[in-house]
Amino acid sequence: MKQEILVALVGNPNSGKTTVFNALTGTRQHVANYPGVTVEQKEGFRRVGEQRLRIVDLPGTYSLTAYSEEELVARHFILDSHPDVVVDILDASNLERNLYLASQLIEMKAPLVLAFNMSDIARQRGLEFDLGQLSVLLGAPIVPLVASKKQGIEDLLKTILEVADSPSPSKVRIHYGHEIETELEKLSAALDADSPAAVKYGRRWAALKLLEGDPEILNESLSDDLKQTLERSRSHLETIFADSPDILIADRRYGFISGACQEAVRDTVEVRHDISDKIDALLTHRYLGLPIFAGM
User: Residue 140 gets which letter from DSSP?
Assistant: First the structure.
């Protein structure tokens, strides 16, 4: 194993990513700006045995498109710096929304660890996870955390070292349905193997981004043949589905996420009702509701 392991922390805003970063690095951190942008860069270090972890806290973002500085910074760091491990910090109590970013990291074949933060809140809300099954469906190890109490941090460090020692890209492939997959194959075939987009991103991921209308990929020098193929593909999908390809692709990603959660996440009946549900049950009770209403 390398003496220094580069770890990238990603996650949605308010997922507890900074809390995890602080728990991992303590006071051994410094703050600067990413070159050329106003986005803040946090970097810290942690020593585990003989290994030194260099941990970079990437900007909080909901996706890896190219519409904001934060998204571009996170994406460029993963693609250009080639971190040994990418740790995606998720709010386990709001899992489906948080998994959208993870689905894009899966598509990028990043060496991924999923950290389910706020696991205590998820349990309070009645959510139970089959972590083994979910790990298989998402193609990445999962570590439950309560970062505010530093619970699970040692398990996270152990998993980071394991992934860094034996990196294996996820074998999970999100299937977008026959029509979209056919157009992706056409675009992949039209991409020259030595073109900048194919070399940097890989053919399938570049084709996916072209179909989404990703502005950064579209600014790459594309051949006339590729531009024509892209125009035909987008027009074909819009004609069939009456929607733009980027919306169709996002919808398929959420379908993949929803399917995984249906198989591996259970919402227990016993604790599902929160305080407002209990108040509603009392105020709308068939016998007590009217006297309470009259009294108010």
Answer: S
Of 226, 187, 220, give the one whose Cα is nearest residue 203. Answer: 187
Q: Kind of pairing, strands 85-91 and 112-117?
A: parallel
Q: What are 99-128's pLDDT values in tens digits?
A: 999 999 999 999 999 999 999 999 988 899
- Joined together, the tokens standing for residue 235 give 């027009």
The C-alpha atoms of residue 195 and residue 180 are separated, in whole angstroms, by 22
The dihedral formed by the CA atoms of 245, 140, 70 and 46, expressed in degrees to the nearest 10: -170
Per-residue CA distances from 196 to 28, 192, 225, 250 (Å): 37, 9, 15, 25
pLDDT digits (tens, 9 = 90+) for 233-274: 999 999 999 999 999 999 999 999 999 999 999 887 544 556
74 CB-near residues (< 8 Å, 6+ apart): 10, 58, 59, 61, 64
Per the structure block, which two tokens stand in for 13? 């805003």
Q: Which residue has the higher pLDDT, 40 or 163?
A: 163
> What's the predicted TM-score (pTM) here?
0.84
